[in-house]
Design goal:
seven-stranded mixed β-sheet; Aspartate Aminotransferase, domain 2; Aspartate Aminotransferase, domain 1; about 375 residues; 13 strands; about 35% helix; four-stranded antiparallel β-sheet; single chain
Length: about 375
C-alpha cells in the first residue's frame, strides 16, 4: 500500500480550493475524468470508469454485460463477499467454486460447475497473487462466458506481462483503505469493450444522458444508479497512480529478501504462482494446519483461515439466501436448487488452514522485513 503523505494532502487541498467536490457541478475537466484517462493508459486498456467502490465496479460490469435474473455466475470460495454479492445485485446467483493451492479459482472445479445457466465467471486475484488466466479465458471461450476479473486486491500486478483486470472482458479495482491504491473508498472498471463501457457508464450514473462529456453511442438508454466517484478521491488516487509501479517494485524486493531467508525451511513451500516473473505478493503453504498456525505467530504473517471475512463459510448474508424482500429474491427467479452452505467447498477450507500471507508492503523498512523472515525461518 502507498502511504498517505504530502502529495495526497496537496491534491485534496487543490480540490477544496477549487470548490468542485462532485464530478459534475463545476467548470473544466474534472479530477475524476483525468484519473480515468490516466488509469486506462496505465492499465493498457481503451476505457476506464471511476466508481464509488470495487463492489460497484463488479455490479456495473455484470449489468453492462447483460447478466441478470436466472443466470449463474461462478465465484471462488476465497475472496471478499462482494465478489459473490455482485451477481445478486443484478438478479443472478453466485455459484461457489473451489480454490486450489495457488489460492485462486481452481480451473478444474470451475469447469465442473458450469451448467447451461452459467453466464459469467469472476476470477479473483487475491493478495496480489494472480489467477491462471490462460485456463480461465480458455474455458470462457469454450462455454461462451463473460469474464469479470476481480483485481480489487491486485491493481498494477501482472500476468504474463499484462496488467490484471485487462485480460478478461472487464476488470474491477478497489481503492479502499487496505488496497495498493487507497482513497478510503472508491473503485474503477476497465475494459476494451466499448459497448460494455458505455453501458457501465449508464448504470453508474442515473443522470448519464445529461452529461456534457458523455461518450457518443447508439446504445439504448436504461435507468441506472448513482455510483459516481467524488473528486477528492480521484485527486488523491491520481497522485498514487504515478507511484504504483515504484511501490510494486519495492514489494518485489521485499518478496525476494523473504524468499532468500526461508528457502530451506522444512515443511514450508511458497504458494504456486501462475506468473512467477511478475510476482509481487507472497503467500506460503505449510505441511499441516498446526505448522501454519506456528508461522502465523510471526508479526506480519497471517493464517488465511483465521482472516475469516474472506472465507465463504463466514458469508452469513450469502449463505442465508435472503433478499431484503422475498419478491426480489434471485434464487426464486432461478427456480432451481443452488447449494450454498458451509460445506460447499471443503478443499478450500483445507487449503486456507495450511496457508499464510506474508506482508511485503512497500512502507515496511527492509530491516524489519529481514527480521520477520528470520523469525519465520526459525518456526
Amino acid at each position: 500500500m502507498i502511504a498517505i503523505g504530502a502529495r495526497e494532502i496537496a491534491a485534496a487541498v487543490r480540490v477544496l480550493i477549487r470548490g468542485q467536490l462532485a464530478r459534475y457541478g463545476g467548470s473544466g475537466t474534472s479530477e475524476t475524468r483525468h484519473f480515468e484517462q490516466e488509469l486506462s493508459n496505465a492499465m493498457g486498456v481503451s476505457n476506464a470508469l471511476a466508481v464509488n467502490s470495487g463492489t460497484s465496479a463488479l455490479v456495473c460490469a455484470l449489468a453492462a454485460a447483460g447478466i441478470g435474473p436466472g443466470d449463474e455466475v461462478l465465484v471462488p470460495a476465497y475472496t471478499w463477499v462482494s465478489s459473490a454479492a455482485a451477481p445478486l445485485a443484478v438478479g443472478a446467483v453466485p455459484v461457489l467454486v473451489e480454490i486450489d493451492e495457488s489460492l485462486t479459482i481452481d480451473p478444474v472445479d470451475l469447469k465442473a460447475k458450469i451448467t447451461p445457466f452459467t453466464k459469467a465467471v469472476i476470477p479473483v486475484h487475491m493478495l496480489n497473487v494472480v489467477c491462471d488466466m490462460t485456463r480461465v479465458m480458455s474455458l470462457a471461450d469454450e462455454f461462451g462466458l463473460v469474464v469479470v476479473e476481480d483485481a480489487c486486491q491486485a491493481i498494477g500486478a501482472r500476468y504474463d506481462g499484462k496488467r490484471v483486470g485487462s485480460i478478461g472482458h472487464a476488470g474491477a479495482f478497489s481503492f479502499q483503505q487496505h488496497k495498493n491504491l487507497k482513497g478510503g473508498e472508491g473503485g474503477a472498471l476497465i475494459t476494451n469493450d466499448y459497448r460494455l463501457y458505455i453501458r457501465s457508464g449508464m448504470y453508474h450514473d442515473v443522470g448519464s444522458y445529461i452529461r456534457e462529456d458523455r461518450d457518443e453511442s447508439d446504445e439504448p438508454l436504461f435507468v441506472g444508479q448513482n455510483l459516481r466517484m467524488p473528486e477528492l478521491i480521484a485527486a488523491i488516487l491520481r497522485t498514487q497512480l504515478r507511484r504504483l509501479d515504484e511501490q510494486l517494485a519495492q514489494r518485489r524486493l521485499r518478496r525476494v529478501a523473504i524468499l532468500e531467508e526461508i528457502a530451506n525451511v522444512s515443511g514450508l513451500a511458497v504458494t504456486i504462482h501462475h506468473s512467477p516473473s511478475d510476482a509481487v505478493g507472497l503467500t506460503i503453504i505449510a505441511e499441516d494446519a498446526e505448522r501454519a498456525l506456528s508461522f502465523a505467530t510471526v508479526k506480519g504473517v497471517n493464517r488465511l483461515i483465521d482472516t475469516g471475512r474472506h472465507v465463504y463459510s463466514n458469508w452469513q448474508s450469502i449463505l442465508s439466501k435472503r433478499s431484503f424482500d422475498p419478491r426480489m429474491d434471485p434464487y426464486q427467479w432461478a427456480n432451481r436448487n443452488i447449494e450454498q452452505s458451509p460445506d460447499s467447498c471443503p478443499y478450500t477450507l483445507q487449503v486456507l488452514e495450511r496457508s499464510c500471507s506474508v506482508s511485503c508492503d512497500a512502507e515496511i523498512p527492509m530491516p524489519l522485513i529481514r527480521r520477520m523472515a528470520k523469525e519465520l525461518a526459525n518456526r
